[in-house]
From TrEMBL:
It comes from the Bacteria. This is TetR family transcriptional regulator. The lineage of its organism: Bacteria, Bacillati, Bacillota, Clostridia, Eubacteriales.
C-alpha cells in the first residue's frame, strides 16, 4: 500500500489499512462472502473470528502488527483514544468488521457497509 507512505496522519493511515480490507471484501461480492462464512462456520476454522487469530495467514498477522503499532502511535500522539488498551480497541473494531460481514452478505450487499464501518471506526478510534 504505497499510499501509506504519503499519509502523515496516523489515524488516517490506520483507516487506510482497514479500508483496503473492506474494499477487498466488497470485491468478493456478497454471495461469495456468504459462502465463505458458512463454510468457515461449518468447519469451525475460525478464519472469520475477531478473537482467534491462530488461523490467520502470515500477511494477515503482519497487518495486525502494523495496525497495533499505528494504534499505539496514535494514542501517544493523542489522535486515538488512550483510555482503552490498544489491543481492546483493535479487537472491538475487528469484531464489528466480522459482525457486519454476515449481515452485509445476507442482505445481498444492498447497503454501503464501508460507510457504516467508517462511522464505527470513528467511534472506536476517536
Amino acid at each position: 500500500m504505497p499510499e501509506l507512505l504519503v499519509i502523515h496522519d496516523t489515524r488516517q493511515k490506520l483507516w487506510k489499512i482497514y479500508e483496503y480490507s473492506i474494499d477487498n471484501t466488497v470485491k468478493l461480492t456478497a454471495p461469495l462472502l456468504k459462502a465463505m462464512i458458512l463454510a468457515d462456520m461449518e468447519n469451525g476454522s475460525g478464519y472469520f473470528s475477531a478473537l482467534r487469530c491462530s488461523k490467520a495467514s502470515e500477511s494477515h498477522l503482519v497487518q495486525l502488527q502494523l495496525i497495533r503499532k499505528l494504534v499505539v502511535q496514535g494514542q501517544e500522539e493523542g489522535v486515538i483514544r488512550s483510555d482503552k488498551d490498544a489491543d481492546l480497541l483493535i479487537t472491538t473494531y475487528n469484531a464489528i468488521l466480522m459482525g457486519m460481514a454476515p449481515d452485509w452478505s445476507s442482505s445481498h450487499g444492498k447497503y454501503n457497509q464501508k460507510e457504516y464501518l467508517k462511522k464505527m471506526f470513528d467511534i472506536i478510534f476517536s
